[in-house]
């Protein structure tokens, strides 16, 4: 497409239209060839899918081409061909959703059409025509309106369309053909055959699962974001001159890291919806909570807006001198690395279907935050207020003083959590408590950085950068929560502390309500 | 949906399954009724559209129900019914795109099918069957593969699908029916009739234009963002206590302002694509540059990430004491108001199809920035470095010193621009120069704020807030550029300075290349 633009630009600049057109035609085969090749190289499953469609179509054509099969089914074999063309989709979930929608839509429409015919059967011919026309109008209007309802539009749009189509075909046909029953029967049979071929081809022959795509997308987005933050922080403290305002941000490796994530809402939701049609179960016949994946995606998207703002600091036209940045380089890079590590750990947790230990991640983050804090404190430029910033002369400091005690509580409990972790069980209750404490510590760190770092000059843009980095830690919490929920809902394996060789068992009650909730939309439709 | 969740939660908690199901059934009519009513109330055009579909279906049924019409067309009238059901869409653009895709797809497939039949005609029956099966396989595979190419997928997906469908139907039928010609002819005629009915209904009877939706969406998003920033800044300086961390951000009026914008990419691009099929022209037969609207949307989305970060400052757990914020309240609020005013001005520019004056907007923004700057300077807490921050002892200050001269240039030219504006013409060249200068001033302001505001303590979170606010001004530039381009491409009326009663004529050469570029995708398809 980009080449296309360049070409058309050149065309309109100087050359005549004929020349330009000739140029276009000459370039077309090369361009088309390259584009075609790229599509297959990007995802070889596409090539396989294309062959699958070809085979399915050939199979369904045999219904018509082979004498014995044709004698059984006849002209209606066309409907099977049509069904295959329309229903066969790339993933199993999409095919199932379309196939079942088509099947149920047809059945429902046929029933209603016969009811209509039964009512219209009694009186004369003119009346019958008028009755049919009215029925078509009423059902047409109602069905079109129903398609605007978000719930229907999201789940059953295609089914409703097919319902309308079949209803009209049968009702209108019934006016001139007496034996509509047998036609409808044949048609439903052939549609069923078509659907069956599609389903067999997509489930049994090299199946592509929407759920798998969603799973992999989530992992790669977590990792992309992790890289992105790492590069971003490193580049900020990089000595070589390059962080000027780049307008062509499409080339940027950082931009690449979050680009797909920002606009992933539609993709994620479609995949989650399709995956919910797929017949894949966890042990004990619990469904995989695909909608939780979409929620993880939403939390990640929310998180990524902070990353965009952080990236903005790099591209900003105000910059803190390198000399000042260098003072806090190590602590900031460490915090950035810790955040990246957490994201990678979450990605691994999803990839390996095992739970992670929120305390350990929180502890590390916490340590990095404290490190940054002490770096801010230890610099000679820093002149703190009276009593090392703990005199209760401003409201914030009063709050801080209160938090300080909590922090000390946590500090003593933090190492003990680690020790306990390697030998004993941590119930949910105590875990919640520990996270609550960690949050308190985080808040204290935040206010300390706020107060402490302000005493020296020229650091405003750096302050904004640090502030966003710390903000990011706070927002990471929501992502961690969602992934933790996912782990519980999908019965991930329990967390094992590999370093200590011991096991920290993170037990929780079965989240029955959540699973039930996730089952609702798909259970209603089958 | 939310009620649904609540209900299913309650269900799984205590009651038995039967009770729960009964409860669901009992609640269903009320829920469905409310939902149905809401859909129509939100957008009454939906009700009208439903009636249009009903009427179109009734009209097309008459082909079958009325004796003289049926004699002309016969059984193939079914294809007209099918076409209407499938092609009729909400907006003119979508209907046209589907209708034309269906038409061309059918024609192309018919030609290819006859070519195939002609080749397969010569030898024996078995060979013919094999040949047809191979043709179906090859075309099926190739077509499915072509649908993965992004350009095809975006513009002609439906056409390719119909091509495959029709090709298969005709090729396979030709095996058992001799007179395929006449069948194909009838089928094409009826499809044409179906398409014609759809187009007449959607273009002539209460048409809904995708372009209009896109236009209105862009305006309402600009205004939503303007409100959002205004509320955001005001709330930050609000004295009443409410800015604690709100997790239920879905309720937030600020969140509402940018919520739809964040995920608007798909909607915008679909609307722009559909709009490009709509036969609406500007004067001189230039097309309306719908793709530029999508670009404005992209710039706005990019801008909105900063708004999200700004909103994050409100929800953050670190807060600067109110007493300090109060000192800069007026300047910050003024800057926020100016940014909002610019966004509203852009919205009005698009709404009224008239260009805006970038200089005037920039000047106002500039004045607000200087105001903030002097506010930061004037406070007694502030202790500036030697020589009022202009000693060239750090690199940034050296740069600043250089910029200072530029700023003085601009300061003298700024009022003159205003004066000249009311009486004489500003060519593009000089306008570009003036904007370049404005940018320089902006940069100077930024570094000044950076240095100046750092001398007093406890302001880090406030510094981040201010920094983001100023960053926002810098990013606003891209939005302004895109809207300006839109104005030029769509030949908006020239800007009139209403206050002075005079006219500032903003003339530019016709952007021929841009228009040509925008024509490419749709010109190729008609």
Automatic annotation (TrEMBL), chains A, B:
Superkingdom of source: Eukaryota
This protein's GO CC annotations: membrane
TM spans (from-to): 47-65, 77-96, 103-120, 126-146, 158-176, 188-206
Entry membrane topology: Multi-pass membrane protein
InterPro entries, sorted: ALMT (IPR020966)
GO biological process: malate transport; monoatomic ion transmembrane transport
Pfam families from the UniProt entry: ALMT (PF11744)
Family that this chain belongs to: Belongs to the aromatic acid exporter (TC 2.A.85) family.
Protein name: Aluminum-activated malate transporter 12
């Amino acid at each position: 497409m980009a080449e296309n633009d360049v070409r058309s630009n050149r065309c309109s600049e100087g050359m005549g239209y004929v020349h330009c057109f000739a140029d276009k035609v000459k370039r077309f085969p090369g361009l088309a060839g390259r584009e075609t090749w790229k599509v297959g190289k990007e995802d070889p499953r596409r090539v396989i899918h294309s062959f699958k469609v070809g085979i399915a179509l050939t199979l369904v054509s045999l219904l018509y081409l082979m004498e014995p099969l044709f004698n059984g089914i006849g002209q209606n074999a066309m409907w099977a061909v049509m069904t295959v063309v329309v229903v066969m989709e790339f993933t199993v979930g999409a095919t199932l959703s379309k196939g079942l929608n088509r099947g149920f839509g047809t059945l429902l429409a046929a029933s209603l059409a016969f009811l209509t015919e039964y009512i219209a059967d009694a009186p004369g011919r003119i009346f019958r025509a008028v009755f049919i026309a009215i029925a078509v109008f009423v059902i047409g209007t109602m069905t079109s309106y129903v398609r605007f309802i978000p719930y229907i539009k999201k789940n059953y749009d295609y089914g409703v369309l097919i319902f309308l189509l079949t209803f009209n075909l049968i009702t209108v046909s019934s006016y001139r053909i007496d034996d509509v029953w047998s036609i409808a029967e044949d048609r439903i049979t052939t549609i069923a055959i078509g659907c069956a071929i599609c389903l067999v081809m997509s489930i049994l022959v090299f199946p592509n699962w929407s759920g798998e795509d969603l799973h992999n997308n989530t992992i790669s987005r977590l990792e992309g974001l992790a890289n992105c933050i790492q590069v971003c922080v490193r580049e900020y403290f990089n000595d070589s001159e390059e962080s000027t305002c780049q307008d062509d941000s499409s080339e940027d490796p950082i931009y690449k890291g979050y680009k797909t994530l920002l606009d992933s809402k539609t993709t994620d939701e479609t995949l989650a919806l399709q995956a919910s049609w797929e017949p894949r179960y966890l042990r004990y016949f619990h469904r995989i909570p695909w909608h939780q994946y979409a929620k993880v995606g939403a939390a990640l998207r929310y998180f990524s807006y902070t990353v965009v703002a952080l990236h903005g600091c790099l591209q900003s036209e105000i910059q803190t001198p390198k000399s000042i940045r260098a003072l806090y380089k190590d602590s900031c890079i460490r915090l950035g690395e810790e955040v990246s590590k957490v994201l990678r750990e979450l990605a691994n947790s999803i990839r390996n279907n095992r739970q992670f230990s929120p305390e350990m991640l929180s502890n590390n983050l916490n340590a990095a935050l404290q490190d940054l804090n002490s770096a801010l404190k230890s610099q000679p430029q820093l002149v703190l207020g009276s009593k090392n910033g703990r005199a209760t002369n401003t409201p914030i400091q009063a709050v801080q003083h209160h938090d300080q005690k909590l922090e000390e509580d946590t500090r003593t409990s933090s190492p003990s959590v680690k020790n306990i972790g390697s030998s004993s069980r941590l119930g949910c209750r105590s875990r919640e408590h520990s996270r609550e404490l960690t949050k308190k510590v985080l808040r204290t760190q935040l206010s300390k950085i706020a107060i402490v770092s302000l005493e020296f000059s020229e650091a405003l843009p750096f302050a904004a950068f640090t502030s966003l980095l710390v903000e990011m830690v706070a927002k990471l919490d929501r992502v961690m929560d969602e992934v933790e929920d996912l782990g519980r809902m999908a019965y991930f394996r329990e967390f094992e502390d590999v370093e200590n060789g011991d096991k920290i068992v993170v037990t929780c009650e079965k989240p029955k309500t959540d699973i039930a909730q996730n089952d609702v939309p798909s259970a209603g439709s089958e």
